[in-house]
Design brief:
This protein is of the alpha/beta class and 353 residues long. The chain has two domains: 261 residues, TIM Barrel (Alpha-Beta Barrel), CATH 3.20.20; 72 residues, no CATH class. The protein is built from 13 helices and 13 strands.
Length: 353
């Protein structure tokens, strides 16, 4: 499959998960199988010794190292991407650092990545994450008018994804958001004029609630080029999170999930842990430190520090951690290797075609 100037062997993207959940180890393993492995740029330097004093420098240094690690593991197979959140203060610097480090693609969401072409230049392929045809239309129109370019691919993320979600919080809680299958035709329609104008396909990858190869086949029959999965990759040995993090998801059921309001300014789906239970009772966990990670964040007003919560989660701290997860967490029941998972997905997909 052609994506921008590059070839993707398998139609599987591994979604970016931060902080520290999808780094060079997981991304490299996915790429080595022929898929697209994705490193999250969110506080990539959380393990660096100078992170608390110099978070910005530590993050960019670590990001460069993790991209190199993933590329080494991949050994020329598949593609290595980064996921960069528009809402982060280091968004622009992270994208530029990733491109300079030789990343193959930049995938961007948690806001509208209207200036992504300027940040990426010609160094990597670029893709927005959208949750509606309307968002796709705005981004593609802006890129065309302002930068005379278009997306190399698009990730359409539905309501069943984990982490930050591009839907109304009350609709999510009420279960009234449109299904992925309902959104896909509209996004494909927005893409077509730009495919014609720029003379190349713009593959759309469906994400959110995709768990099996059969799920992938259902969506590719509707016009998707493939799928992005995230939660399933957490229960792999190569996932960069601690085993404690993985155990929280392996032990969680569908009824253990909750939609919270994140300091990022968006709703998010996570496992109901003591932190989430406190948030549901409108109890604050007053931030004690600030790494200035999110644009517009006011530490004296937010209910909790998302950087602290995500770092504690990746370490396996159930009491203080925020464990993002997609809606299919209840189906996770065992640890597997990335290659086992990729083979399973592709075999199911081919049988269901």
């Amino acid at each position: 499959m052609r994506i921008g100037r590059r070839e993707l062997t398998l139609p599987i993207l591994q979604g970016g998960m931060g902080v520290g959940v999808s780094m060079g180890g997981l991304a490299g393993a996915v790429a080595a199988c022929g898929g697209m492995g994705t490193i999250s740029t969110a506080d990539a330097g959380y393990l660096e010794p100078d992170f608390e004093k110099n978070p910005f420098e530590a993050n960019l240094r670590a990001l460069k190292q993790e991209i190199g690690k993933a590329k080494e593991i991949a050994r020329g197979a598949g593609l290595v991407a980064v996921n960069a959140m528009v809402a982060t203060v280091q968004y622009a610097d992270a994208v530029k650092t990733a491109v300079a480090a030789g990343v193959d693609a930049v995938v961007s969401g948690a806001g509208l990545p209207l200036d992504l072409p300027e940040l990426v230049g010609e160094g990597a392929d670029k893709a927005p994450i959208v949750s509606s045809p309307r968002a796709a239309k705005l981004i593609l129109k802006t890129w065309d008018r302002k930068y005379h370019t278009t997306a190399d691919f698009i990730v359409l993320e539905g309501k069943d994804a984990g982490g930050h979600l591009g839907f109304d919080e009350e609709q999510l809680k009420a279960g009234s958001c449109p299904a992925l299958e309902e959104l896909l035709p509209g996004v494909l329609a927005e893409v077509r004029p730009y495919e014609e104008k720029y003379g190349h396909p713009i593959p759309v990858f469906a994400a959110g609630g995709v768990y099996t190869g059969s799920d992938m086949a259902r969506l590719t029959k509707l016009g998707a080029a493939g799928a992005q999965l995230a939660t399933r990759f957490i229960a792999t040995y190569e996932c960069d999170a601690s085993q404690g993090y993985k155990d929280v998801l392996l032990e969680a059921g569908e009824g253990d999930l909750a939609v919270i309001h994140s300091p990022v300014g968006m709703p998010g789906r996570a496992v109901r842990t003591p932190l989430v239970e406190r948030l549901e009772q409108n109890l604050r966990r007053v931030p004690t430190k600030c790494s200035r990670c999110i644009k517009g964040c006011v530490p004296t007003q937010i209910p909790f520090c998302i950087t602290h919560a995500l770092i504690e989660a990746v370490k396996g701290n159930r009491e203080e951690g925020l464990f993002f997860s997609g809606s299919n967490v209840g189906r996770l029941n065992k640890m597997v290797y990335v290659r086992e998972l990729m083979d399973e997905l592709m075999n199911e997909w081919r049988v269901s075609q």
